[in-house]
Specification:
Largest sheet of chain B: none
Structural class of chain A: mainly alpha
Helix content of chain A: over 70%
Structural class of chain B: mainly alpha
Number of strands of chain B: 0
Order of helices and strands of chain B: HHHHHHHHHH
Oligomer: heterodimer
Shape of chain B: elongated
Number of domains of chain B: 1
Radius of gyration of chain A: 19 Å
Largest sheet of chain A: none
Strand content of chain B: under 5%
Number of domains of chain A: 1
Number of strands of chain A: 0
Number of helices of chain B: 10
Helix content of chain B: over 70%
Order of helices and strands of chain A: HHHHHHHH
Radius of gyration of chain B: 20 Å
Distance between the termini of chain B: 50 Å
Strand content of chain A: under 5%
């Protein structure tokens, strides 16, 4: 992986990102704006599952309101994230936080897709029944925790030393 | 009045020193700052987009605006964690241009909210069910979105313009390149 990161750091695109010092902060800021959209969307759906917010809306209406924004923001996150990896390959790829984050994103998406599909297929009665189950509520909490952990791990990429000996960062 | 001695005293306090010296405190505080600020921005954006008629347009505005109580919780988390980061390097942050602009813009968005409450909020019953708010409400929404997105950009720039706990990432890459 280190070899790949070194190779990537030498590519034209990577060098361009490295030379223009404003690119990384700008891309990171756009990344954070989109994290805001994703996290708030997940938060609103979780609040609806618990009946703490938006009770005038069904769960299906709530997911219809937020899922398109969530997926669109995720695409922008993927693009800006990729730019950060290209611009700073060693910093990103040689960090344990980065790979833990990627794994959790997979888990977050794997939870979200069946949930969204099941909701769009089924009717109102099914939905009320669903929200009364403790498994649904635990899944909502789990999802929120997964996405919050993704945010924390994302920030920890800058501080891979917190992992001590587990850090993947080459010793400078 | 010279504030420098006060800032220096804050920096050298036991608590600030503990955060600075800990391997984990600052990164974790910063992470929770991101959670707080993203939820603040995200939930405010929900209300702003409703004012503009872009999203949730079929719901009464006052119903959508109920989310703002959660915004305050998230904002509280962002302020608390922000203050904890500030005390670790108070004099540097205080004199940092991006930090000052950020604080100004947060104050302006508070003012924007206050003015919105006074003008558009007064007759909210008349437009509560409309697809979008009257022009003054739309203006407040646009200002709010611009201000908060700018706050995010400025906040990120603080990390690149202060030499606090963050090492400039660029150097690491350049070193690796020429090794």
């Amino acid at each position: 992986m280190n070899d790949f990161a070194q190779w990537l750091a030498g590519t034209q695109l990577s060098l361009a990102i490295q030379i223009h010092l404003w690119i990384i902060p700008t891309v990171q800021s756009i990344h954070i704006v989109c994290i805001g959209i994703v996290l708030a969307s997940v938060f609103m759906i979780a609040l609806r599952v618990f009946g703490w917010s938006g009770r005038d809306q069904t769960l299906q209406q709530t997911t219809r309101r937020f899922c398109p924004w969530l997926w669109a923001a995720l695409v922008v996150l993927l693009v800006t994230g990729a730019l950060m990896v290209i611009g700073e390959p060693v910093r990103e790829l040689m960090s344990l936080s980065f790979w833990l984050k990627m794994s959790l994103i997979l888990i977050g998406i794997v939870i979200a897709i069946p949930f969204q599909l099941a909701l769009s297929r089924n009717g109102r009665n099914w939905e009320d029944d669903l929200m009364n189950r403790w498994t649904t509520k635990s899944l909502a909490i789990l999802t929120l925790l997964v996405w919050c952990s993704i945010v924390v791990l994302g920030r920890l990429i800058a501080y891979d030393h917190v992992w001590g000996n587990w850090s993947l960062r080459p010793i400078v | 009045m010279d504030i420098t001695p006060t800032l220096k005293a804050i920096e050298s306090s036991g608590f600030a020193t503990w955060i600075r010296d800990s391997l984990y405190a600052f990164p974790l505080i910063e992470s929770f700052h991101v959670i707080g600020l993203t939820l603040t921005f995200g939930t405010i954006a929900i209300v702003d987009l409703r004012l503009l008629g872009v999203a949730s347009a079929h719901r009464p505005f006052t119903k959508v605006a109920e989310v703002l109580k959660w915004t305050w919780v998230a904002f509280g988390l962002a302020v608390l964690t922000g203050a904890l980061m500030f005390i670790t390097n108070a004099s540097v942050y205080f004199s940092n241009a991006q930090f000052r602009w950020k604080m100004l813009l947060i104050a302006l968005s508070g003012l924007n909210m206050f003015v919105f409450d006074r003008i558009s909020g007064r007759n909210v019953r008349q437009w509560d069910n409309d697809r979008s708010a009257p022009p003054s409400g739309k203006l407040a929404a646009v200002l709010s979105l611009i201000l908060w997105i700018s706050v995010i950009f400025l906040g990120r720039w603080i990390g690149f313009t202060t030499t606090g706990n963050q090492t400039p990432d660029v150097e690491i890459n350049l070193d690796d390149l020429f090794r």
